[in-house]
Amino acid sequence: MKNIIPYGKQKIFISDFSEVNKALKSNFITNGEYVKKFEKSFSKYTKAKYSLTCSSGTAAIDLALKSIGLKKNDNIIIPSVNFIAAANMAKLLGANIFLADVDRLSGQMRPSDLLNCIKFNRLKKIKAFFVMYNGGCPNFVKEFYNIKKKFKTIIIEDACHALGSKYSIKKNFKIGNCKFSDLATFSFHPLKTITTGEGGMVTTNNKILNDKLKIYRNHGMIRGKTTKYNYNWAYKIVDAGHNYRLSDLNCALGYSQLKKINQIIQKRKYIANLYNEELKELKPIVDFPKVSKDLESAWHLYVININFKKLKINKKTLIQKLFRNRITTQVHYIPTFNQPLYKSFYQKNKFKNAKAYYENCLSLPIYYDLNSKTVKNIAKKLKNIIHQSKHI
Ligand SMILES: Cc1ncc(COP(=O)(O)O)c(C=O)c1O
Fold this sequence. Notes:
Blueprint: H1 14-25, H2 33-46, E1 50-54, H3 57-67, E2 75-79, H4 85-92, E3 96-100, H5 111-120, E4 128-132, H6 141-150, E5 154-158, E6 166-169, E7 171-174, E8 183-187, E9 200-204, H7 207-217, E10 221-223, E11 235-237, H8 248-258, H9 261-279, E12 286-287, E13 295-296, E14 302-306, H10 315-324, H11 352-360, E15 361-364, H12 372-388
Parallel strand pairs: 2-3, 2-4, 4-5, 5-8
Antiparallel strand pairs: 1-9, 6-7, 6-13, 8-9, 10-11, 12-14, 14-15
Helix pairs in contact: 1-8, 2-8, 3-4, 3-7, 9-12
């Protein structure tokens, strides 16, 4: 559809074309030099010891779960507001999933939600828990680490919203460095901070986990090294795995995009600040995303919370009204317990905050090529609709 403002969009730079071209002309367009280059530059950026490319963020999550040996009847905790990949991958491995409530403004699980989930379900053994930095702000990194230590469990950061986000504990760390987690997973879907078309990455500082990630990325296969004088043709299959490899064409794009990440985040931050400024008169009907002083968000999303009790319209109507003004918005996310597949998790008196978040949250458009004029126009349209819909 023409002239419709999407809620997110990739940015492809001119220099990206020449890098992908080089990959196309190289001898190996899979398992080649660009895979190594992208992984190496990702580790340099995040300061993680190991970075492993794969075919999507979902594949990254599946690999992370396989590397820790998640199996049937293992207990795993997942925030109730999340992209569905974590729950689906854990379900396919036969794990017992426990959903935790979230903060009603950020949509993120808090340490208290995690502890409540452990207590309520009387969990003695917890194989792992996911954290997800909904929108990009990396809250409670150290607090989650303390819970991990207390319960002798594993943290997987579903960091798909948080590439380039930073937290400050003694010094600045980037999400993905796994200083305070076991594994972090990323997506390079077109709407993410950087894109490879489709693609993903897992980072870790643990060699044993990294060795397993490599095996599961490639059919469950172990292959010896070929040296100058010894061609190692044989291979062993040690477990059933997928083909989750990312081609050199995608990796060349990722390698090139990563060079521009600061510029990309800078622009997203600018847009978020502009929305804050343009929409501030909507307070207290609308709440805005908060980033505390010691944190930096990569602004994957700009999520506002609207108190619909003060309006004559509900969220569905607002979304359609904005759409008729050619503005696309989105909801991140429909809580997992509201999905038909996971409806057994639904309970009337549970997940109060997740339900409130879902009722009120709305993601406004944010992407590199969104200019100030358009942001101001989106803000103006939203203000008009909200002012017209107020109870008198
Ligand atoms: C939080 C989160 N987890 C996982 C994924 C899955 O990533 P992909 O779409 O690359 O499989 C996404 C992407 O939408 C995501 O936002």
